[in-house]
Write a structure and sequence with these properties.
mainly alpha; 80% helix
Length: 119
């Protein structure tokens, strides 16, 4: 009797396993799933740098709103480092002709700004 119960439960278990395997194989994206698994196995052989590069590249490809945000960030960085430098940060060292004059100018500026003369 116990042996029959174990056989029945084994048959039921195997039918469930076969059902889930059938559902998995009948899925329309099964080829994509196997290709994904193959890609993951193949990626294990690549170096860490290549895997990190692919991780960020795939993430960037899948972004929708993120691409717009990255474009805004790049435009802001361009404005900060190029446009503002041109208009608000003049190059004082270009007025100095030799390397020694530039060193002297920087040294004097550091000293004068650190210890201002009381006038």
């Amino acid at each position: 009797m116990i042996y029959m119960l174990n056989m029945v439960s084994l048959v039921i278990f195997l039918s469930y396993v076969l059902f889930f395997i059938g559902c998995f194989l009948a899925h329309p994206n099964i080829i994509y799933s196997f290709a994904f698994i193959y890609q993951q196995i193949k990626m294990k052989k690549d170096s860490v740098v290549v895997r990190v590069w692919r991780f960020y590249l795939d993430g960037f490809r899948e972004m929708t709103l993120g691409k717009t945000l990255w474009a805004i960030i790049m435009i802001k960085l361009f404005i900060m480092f190029v446009i503002l430098k041109l208009f608000f940060f003049p190059n004082f060292l270009s007025k100095q002709e030799t390397k020694e004059d530039k060193q002297e100018y920087v040294g004097n500026e550091l000293i004068n700004r650190a210890i201002p003369l009381n006038k």
